[in-house]
Design brief:
Order of helices and strands of chain A: EEEEEEEEEEE
Helix content of chain B: under 10%
Number of helices of chain B: 0
Structural class of chain A: mainly beta
Oligomer: heterodimer
Helix content of chain A: under 10%
Shape of chain A: globular
Chain lengths: ~110, ~110
């Protein structure tokens, strides 16, 4: 069983709509949660991180964390074609000797 | 500010050949990592180094060796390349190994034929 699970997609989103991405994790001791964006042929780049339960907003992006339910989500408001990419969820888990565990990623396609 | 620099960007190897992927960071980070990324598998950790002089195995270390040459440099060696090692390799670094933000290099595309 993978420790960090994401739907692979593709998630098709009309331009201007909200994209909602979900990520679940298995280790209840996980402490830090990250969302990375990866364009095709490029390296992952950090969008945002969240440590505490609740919402964290940064521009058009909102990360939501629910430790009791062991999920973290990412909302992209006013989706743009430039948001078309694969979004990777990463979790810092104490069971992994202090290393980040990555999900396989969700592909998002924003259609004009 | 270069961040994390890895070389080469592209390489084709024959089965059984050896090669070393080089990585250097200029952010004075303590921790460095080597990941491989395969379609549908996400990023998988090969080896990491929490600090200069230390290295530890990750999820998929078989067939690889690493050297933390100094604080800046962390190399990955394939002693006898196999087709299963065809992948994209990313070097990364972070301030600590305690869940701090990881910064990635641009990637190295390796094909073993």
């Amino acid at each position: 069983q993978k420790e960090v699970e994401q739907n692979s997609g593709p998630l098709s989103v009309p331009e201007g709509a909200i994209a909602s991405l979900n990520c679940t994790y298995s280790d209840r001791g996980s402490q830090s949660f990250f969302w990375y964006r990866q364009y095709s042929g490029k390296s992952p780049e950090l969008i945002m991180f969240i440590y505490s339960n609740g919402d964290k907003e940064d521009g058009r992006f909102t990360a939501q964390l629910n430790k009791a339910s062991q999920y973290v989500s990412l909302l992209i408001r006013d989706s743009q074609p430039s948001d078309s990419a694969t979004y990777l969820c990463a979790v810092f888990s104490t069971d992994s000797w202090g290393k980040l565990q990555f999900g396989a990623g969700t592909q998002v396609v924003v259609t004009p | 500010n270069a961040g994390v620099t890895q070389t080469p960007k592209f390489q084709v190897l024959k089965t059984g050949q050896s090669m070393t992927l080089q990585c250097a960071q200029d952010m004075n980070h303590n921790s460095m990592y080597w990941y491989r990324q395969d379609p549908g598998m996400g990023l998988r950790l090969i080896y990491y180094s929490a600090s200069e002089g230390t290295t530890d195995k990750g999820e998929v270390p078989n067939g690889y060796n690493v050297s933390r040459l100094n604080k800046r440099e962390f190399s990955l060696r394939l002693e006898s390349a196999a087709p299963s090692q065809t992948s994209v390799y990313f070097c990364a670094s972070s301030d600590t190994d305690r869940g701090n933000t990881i910064y990635f290099g641009e990637g190295s595309w390796l094909t073993v034929v």
